[in-house]
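Subgroup meeting minutes
Present: P.N., E.W., G.H.
Scribe: E.W.

1. P.N. recapped why we're keeping a running log of single-chain structure predictions: easier to compare across weeks, and new members can see raw inputs and outputs side by side.
2. G.H. added today's entry (228 aa).
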Amino acid sequence: MRNTADRKGSVVESIVQTLGDDIVSGRLTPGTKLDAQAVAERFGVSRTPIRETFGHLAAMGLVTHRPNRGVAVATLSTSALSDLYEAMAELEAALARLATLRMNCNQRERLKRMHMQSVHLARDGTADEYASYNRDFHALIFEGARSPQLQKLAEATRTRLAPFRRAQFRISNRISKSWEEHDAIVMAILDGDADRVARMMRLHVQTVSAMSAEFVAEHKLQPEDNGH
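Output recorded in log:
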């Protein structure tokens, strides 16, 4: 039973990622209606995982689901995106600071090894490959912080921002710059400078926020602020 559940979860996660990327990149524009049957046929699945997928996308703010009107691609609010990144920056700064103080020797070594092994991705890795490494990098810092409640909040926020965080790596030179930012964070962790790590991580996420906003603007997904 668990294997079946794992497969279902993997299918839903993959569809959420694909549709999320389609929305953020502008391939699915605001107001586009998403028909469950059509989406199910596109991915070769039943409508059950599609309903779950729509729930995840709604939680991310990428689609709206109104009674009798179906599911449609949401208008992406730049102010809401900025608010989420502000929260993310503070959460990750706090977790990185705690990780610096609480990581054991094995975790520090794993972080250093993971980071150094990723250098080839900064040179010739794909956006998807680097995004996968990036997720593991931050997850290890979360683990090292040993703060379950902060970690839970950070992971929930990261999930909502996932399509935007992936999108930044499609901007020219962003992967190499991200690796350099990680390098500064790792060096500060290894030095045991918790306050410097917190500053570096906050700046890193603020940069991600700016890059994500740039990507959204380039793909003409920014609405005019209308007070809503």
